[in-house]
Amino acid sequence: MNGKNKLTLSFIFALVGFMIAIQFQTTQNPEERDTRDLWEVRTEIQEQQKIQQELYSELEDLDVMLNQYEGKSETEQIDALKKSIQMLEKEAGLTEVSGKGIAIHVKPMFQEMNMPQTYPTLAPGLLQRLINELNNYGAKEIAIGNERITNLTPIRDVNGYTYVNNHPLPSLPVQIKVLTDNPQKLQEYMKVSQSRDEFAIENLELSFELREQLTLPAYEEVPPLNDIKIDENVETGES
Amino acid sequence: MWFPFLFLLVGIVLGLLTDIRVPDEYTNYFSIAVLAALDTLLGGLRAHLEEQFDQKVFVSGFFFNVGLAAFLAFLGVQLGIDLYLAAVFAFGVRLFQNIALIRRFLIEKDRIKKHNEKNDENKRILP
């Protein structure tokens, strides 16, 4: 092999190496382009700041609790423990709660038609959408009929019947109670909400009623915590 | 002989340093092209060991194979047939063949060398 030969060969080798390196880079970390515009980034920052604020206030509460635990007398410690248990139970929906809110009545809607009409039922999908919407507009606690909605509440179809918390819903009309800080606003939101149209398609009518005093039942069973495990990962956040 | 490999390393380092990335749409074509390049590389190495190396064949083979592989992938996408599999298959088989031939050649060379050394020793002892 003469010198010129070697040089060409070397050049091709270098080219192949270059190609392999580029291919390697492309597959290892594909290009991720940030396509958000200024406003999207701004709202993102705002959201993150909001989350940060919430976390800070939560941390403050926990700090207060920790101080109480570290208080000297044993009775004080027990008191603090009881208080936190009560708080957690309330948060999990294991206690009765009352306050201001709105009551939503779900009634069958009968139209004057020649066709025979079946008695409408409340489908799980509709209920889920309604709950999502209520939560969106600031609902704090929700109960459907006598069933309190918690974070673990299943709403599902069992043999054609709608089950909430593994109990069948009574036939219509059904009352949904919602607690919120600002009932007036929630009512107005719900009056123009999409759920209303969706319920109307299924021949269901939603009517709203403001209540100064509403009492929601407690979640009666033991929460199903069998499948829940403690997350032992140490969370690392940005400082 | 180590000169080309030095350049291979230089190419790899250069590629990693420049931070060039192929756009998502072209990764398929590029990966096939890389395979073709590797195949040509090993083919060239084998030809060199067998002392049949021809620069014209090597250089033209390199560019033609890379281009053809990318074109096949492109055609496959246009026609809705996975034609790139043909390229993967062909180059894959040839890759293995070339590597096997290089291995055999090296083993053979080693054996001949050892044999010669033994003969030399025998010659030295005899007189």
TrEMBL record, chain A:
Keywords of this entry: Coiled coil, Signal
Keyword Nucleotide-binding included in the entry's annotation: no
Residues annotated as transmembrane: none
Coiled-coil region list: 52-91
Alphabetized InterPro entries for the sequence: DUF881
Gene3D superfamilies (UniProt xref): Protein of unknown function DUF881 (3.30.70.1880)
Signal peptide stretch: 1-21
PANTHER family from the UniProt entry: UPF0749 PROTEIN RV1825 (PTHR37313), UPF0749 PROTEIN YLXX (PTHR37313:SF2)
UniProt family annotation: Belongs to the UPF0749 family.
Protein name: NgoFVII family restriction endonuclease
Species of the source: Pontibacillus litoralis JSM 072002
Automatic annotation (TrEMBL), chain B:
Transmembrane segments annotated in the record for this chain: 28-45, 57-77, 83-106
UniProt keywords, alphabetically: Cell membrane, Membrane, Transmembrane, Transmembrane helix
GO cellular component entries: plasma membrane
Family annotation (InterPro entries): DUF1290
Membrane topology: Multi-pass membrane protein
Pfam families for this protein: DUF1290 (PF06947)
Localization per record: Cell membrane
Family named by the database record: Belongs to the sbp family.
Protein name: Small basic protein
Organism: Pontibacillus litoralis JSM 072002
